[in-house]
């Protein structure tokens, strides 16, 4: 802590000052200053938010001129001498030096009664040391600014990190497949930074598709973060890290499987509805995951992460979690009416690629569960052979083309056996895959086999889950 | 952010991880300090783009020279603020000097005044943000919400004596922004 000089001689009567400094929580505890409802920014610098901004003084104004204060009668203190009731001018109080000195801060801030102000000002004419301090404190008031509400450009992180890594290549890089997760968790965390209680408890409706029908579940912003924490925990488990569910849900948590089971277990077993306090554990875990996969690096990329009824290799699971993080960040942003941008195109492209790779299995499952008609036998090739395919064309900066084998996950997409072609925007495709847009309402350019197209669109929506 | 009670251990580990060349540590460093760095840079430079550029420079410096941080001399946050302050003031001086007409002694003095003003403002921001929460809360109430010290005392649930003491102490701390030529903790910055 700096500025100890400031205590100097001026503080000789007030020993407890130093103690205060030591006892007070450091600035770091930004998020939790419930005392006056002010939510400081964690790493606020000059860019803290302030809901009171509008009503406050201009940031650059000089020392404030004292404004009229409530009359001393409102102060709940002994009234000044009433010997002269007819006199409206404040009656200078006869206060001892120590008290006058202790009033200097309040005086500089124009936060004394009129009578006290008069007494202090009277005193300043005759006490050099108080006059010096008074001047100093007045000048200090001029340094108080409303914190500027500057939102950091979300793209700045990637630019800053890239330029650092170029100047000094890392010995332990973050694997490329973990970069989207790193970026998306950082973006969501930045969104959460300024949230007050009202935002944390804002209602959110989570939506997904199951058996071709729209499903939804109500929760809050904090509940969404608890959901991300619980499901990210699948990867933590896979990597041998601590399971966030163990603490909250105990034995019940250990039995819970899959994203939905784990989330429900978390929601059910936490003693209170989730609050902002869930942010710390979520962020700590997401940092921990990035850190750990950077160490295990290439070796662990193929490690299988269990989602209960299916598995994904670690690098795909990290991509899946990046995707979910973005989708839920959008849910949150929408709930509190903030703008939120899609991921960087190169990250979005990888997320689309993951969905495209998951589609053949999803199509098979549709047939197995009777949601789609059985595959057409004569087109069923042997594993690794070209099969009947749909061309998925994604437009935009994140775009590309994928040939989706329609009849078997083992088949290889083939341009020669293309039976249909759909074209849609990358973000639209992701919202479809996230269950945010019903397949019938997606804006899709389409040519070819209508049944194949319908199947693929419904299978895409079916990739979504709680 | 869950930065409550960040132990010095975190600072030390962070330094070791940066020194080891762990890219993930750089990301965490950014997540913790980007708004501090950007905010201070913006206060000194008064320009969004310039603050972005400076933020990049500061993190590059931290990443390239983690060994120049000495955990024994103070918290990482103070060091980061010190590096930011130094680089921001340097940049402001350079860019203002470049804009000066040749051989104008008068404007040079004006430049120094402006640099000093920006520097004090940034230091003041940092002091306000780092001061003990009770002091900051009292200043918030008395200055931004225009409560008098008795109301401040009620709001904070403390005695009137204590409210007066906090206001005075808070301003005393803040007034040290005028003192040094270097920012708090800048000594360990280079």
Please supply descriptive tags for the structure shown above.
heterodimer, A: 466 residues, alpha+beta, Arc Repressor Mutant, subunit A, Four Helix Bundle (Hemerythrin (Met), subunit A), Nonspecific Lipid-transfer Protein, Chain A, 3 domains, four-stranded mixed sheet, two-stranded antiparallel sheet, 44% helix, elongated, B: 190 residues, Rna Polymerase Sigma Factor, Chain: A, 8 helices, disordered C terminus
Which class do the helix and strand fractions of chain A yield? alpha+beta
Shape of chain A: elongated
Helix run count of chain A? 16
Strand order of the largest sheet of chain A: 6-5-7-8
Question: Explain this structure to me?
Answer:
Chain A is an alpha+beta fold. Helix content of chain A is 44%, strand content 12%. In chain A, helix 13 (314-336) packs across helix 14 (345-368) and helix 14 crosses helix 15 (426-433). The longest helix of chain A is centred in the last third of the chain and has 24 residues, at 345-368. The model of chain A is unreliable at 1-76 and 79-87 (pLDDT under 50). Chain B is mainly alpha-helical and 190 residues long. Chain B has 2 domains: 8-130, RNA polymerase sigma factor, region 2, helix turn helix motif (Rna Polymerase Sigma Factor, Chain: A); 131-185, Arc Repressor Mutant, subunit A. Residues 1-5 and 182-190 of chain B have low confidence and may be disordered. Chains A and B meet through helix 1, helix 3, helix 5, helix 6 and helix 7 of A and helix 2, helix 3, helix 4, helix 5 and helix 6 of B.
């Amino acid at each position: 802590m700096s500025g100890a000089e400031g205590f100097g001689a001026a503080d000789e009567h007030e020993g407890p000052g130093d103690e205060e400094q030591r006892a007070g929580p450091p600035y770091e505890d930004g998020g939790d200053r419930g005392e006056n409802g002010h939510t400081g920014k964690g790493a606020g610098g000059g860019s803290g938010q302030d809901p009171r901004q509008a009503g406050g003084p201009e940031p650059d104004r000089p020392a404030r001129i004292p404004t009229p204060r409530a009359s001393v009668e409102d102060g709940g203190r002994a009234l000044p001498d009433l010997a002269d009731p007819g006199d409206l001018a404040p009656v200078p109080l006869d206060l001892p030096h120590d008290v006058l000195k202790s009033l200097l801060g309040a005086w500089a801030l124009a936060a004394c009664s009129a009578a006290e102000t008069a007494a202090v000002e009277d005193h300043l004419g005759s006490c050099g040391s108080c006059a010096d301090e008074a001047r100093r404190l007045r000048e200090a008031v001029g340094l108080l600014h409303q914190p500027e509400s500057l939102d950091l450009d979300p793209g700045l992180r990637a630019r800053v990190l890239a330029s650092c890594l170029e100047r000094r290549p890392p010995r332990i890089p973050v694997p490329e497949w973990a970069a989207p997760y790193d970026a998306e968790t950082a973006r969501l965390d930045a969104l959460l930074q300024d949230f007050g209680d009202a935002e944390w408890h804002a209602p959110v409706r989570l939506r997904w598709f199951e058996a071709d029908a729209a499903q939804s579940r109500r929760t809050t912003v904090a509940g969404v973060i608890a959901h991300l924490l619980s499901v990210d925990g699948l990867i933590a488990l896979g990597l041998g890290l601590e399971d966030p569910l163990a603490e909250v849900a105990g034995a019940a948590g250990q039995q819970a499987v899959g994203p939905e089971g784990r989330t429900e277990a978390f929601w059910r077993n936490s003693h209170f509805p989730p609050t902002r306090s869930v942010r710390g554990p979520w962020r700590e875990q997401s940092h921990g995951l990035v850190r750990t996969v950077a160490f295990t690096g290439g070796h662990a990329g193929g490690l299988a992460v269990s989602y209960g009824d299916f598995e994904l290799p670690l690098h795909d699971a990290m991509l899946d979690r990046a995707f979910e993080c973005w989708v839920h960040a959008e849910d949150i942003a929408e709930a509190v009416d903030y703008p939120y941008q899609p991921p960087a195109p190169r990250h979005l492209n990888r997320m689309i690629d993951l969905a495209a790779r998951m589609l053949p299995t999803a199509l098979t499952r549709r047939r197995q569960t009777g949601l789609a008609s059985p595959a057409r036998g004569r087109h069923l090739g042997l594993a690794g052979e070209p099969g009947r395919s749909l061309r998925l064309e994604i437009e935009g900066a994140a775009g590309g083309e994928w040939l989706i084998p329609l009849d078997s996950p083992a088949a290889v997409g083939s341009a020669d056996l293309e039976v249909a072609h759909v074209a849609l925007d990358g973000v639209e495709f992701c919202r479809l895959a996230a269950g945010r847009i019903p397949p019938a309402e997606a804006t899709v350019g389409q040519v070819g086999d209508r049944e194949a197209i319908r199947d693929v669109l419904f299978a895409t929506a079916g990739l979504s889950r709680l | 952010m869950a930065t409550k009670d960040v132990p010095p251990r975190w600072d030390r580990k962070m330094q070791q991880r940066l020194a080891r060349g762990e890219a993930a540590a750089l990301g965490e460093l950014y997540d913790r300090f980007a708004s501090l760095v950007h905010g201070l840079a913006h206060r000194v430079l008064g320009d969004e783009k310039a603050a972005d550029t400076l933020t990049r420079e500061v993190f590059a410096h931290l990443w390239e020279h983690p060994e120049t941080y000495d955990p024994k001399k103070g918290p990482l946050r103070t060091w980061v603020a010190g590096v930011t302050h130094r680089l921001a003031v340097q940049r402001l001086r350079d860019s203002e000097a470049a804009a000066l007409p040749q051989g104008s002694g008068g404007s040079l003095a004006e430049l120094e005044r402006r640099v000093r003003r920006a520097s004090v403002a940034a230091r003041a921001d940092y002091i306000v943000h780092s001061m003990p929460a009770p002091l900051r809360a009292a200043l918030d109430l008395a200055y931004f919400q225009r409560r008098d010290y008795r109301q401040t005392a009620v709001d904070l649930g403390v005695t009137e004596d204590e409210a007066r003491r906090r206001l005075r102490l808070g301003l005393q701390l803040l007034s040290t922004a005028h003192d040094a030529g270097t920012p708090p903790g800048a000594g360990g910055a280079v």
